[in-house]
Each structure stands twice: as C-alpha cells, then as structure tokens.
C-alpha cells in the first residue's frame, strides 16, 4: 500500500496546517509556496489520486469542490479568481492527492488566459 500523501496526513491531523475552511467533504488550506497573493488548496477528504482517477460516484464530490471555490471567492470578496487542477506528473502534479488551486489577486497575463 502506498504511503499516505502529505494532504492525507494534514487531513488526519498528523501534520498541522491552518484550515481556511473545512466541512465533511473537504478542507482548504493556504499553499505553502504561493503563486499569487491568494493561493488556496481545496482538498477532498477522499484520497483520490487525481481527476482521472475519479469515478462516476465522485461527481457530487467534484461538484462540491467547485461550489466551495465559489463560496470562498464570495466570502473573501475576490473580484475574480482562477482554478487549476494539475492532473498527472507531466501536467505538474507533485502531490498525488487530488486538489484544486484557487489563485487570485494577481493580474493574469494575456498568454495565461484561455481564449474562447
């Protein structure tokens, strides 16, 4: 069996972390190496490796994680924010426990913005 991820250890209380938000499905902490003035990590309590490992039964959880992002944006008064999910090592994932980065208060460069 694989060793628990750092996020599983934070969720269990083995590693201390200040929680910005938590409920029965997820916790939210500040990123320890922020890439923007506001950089939060929305982490499900369920130890999914990444988004590709999620199953049909995880749809309510995935929707909840997005709802939490919106709720944090409202509560923090963020005018705009970006959500990032790195899925797999080649996409930059370094902690293999699904998490969503919420980044805000840094103007996105034109090359950072997806074009519709």
UniProtKB/TrEMBL annotation:
<protein>
    <submittedName>
        <fullName>Histidine triad (HIT) family protein</fullName>
    </submittedName>
</protein>
<dbReference type="InterPro" id="IPR011146">
    <property type="entry name" value="HIT-like"/>
</dbReference>
<dbReference type="Pfam" id="PF01230">
    <property type="entry name" value="HIT"/>
</dbReference>
<feature type="active site" description="Tele-AMP-histidine intermediate">
    <location>
        <position position="99"/>
    </location>
</feature>
<feature type="domain" description="HIT">
    <location>
        <begin position="6"/>
        <end position="115"/>
    </location>
</feature>
<dbReference type="InterPro" id="IPR001310">
    <property type="entry name" value="Histidine_triad_HIT"/>
</dbReference>
<feature type="short sequence motif" description="Histidine triad motif">
    <location>
        <begin position="97"/>
        <end position="101"/>
    </location>
</feature>
<dbReference type="GO" id="GO:0003824">
    <property type="term" value="F:catalytic activity"/>
</dbReference>
<dbReference type="InterPro" id="IPR019808">
    <property type="entry name" value="Histidine_triad_CS"/>
</dbReference>
<dbReference type="InterPro" id="IPR036265">
    <property type="entry name" value="HIT-like_sf"/>
</dbReference>
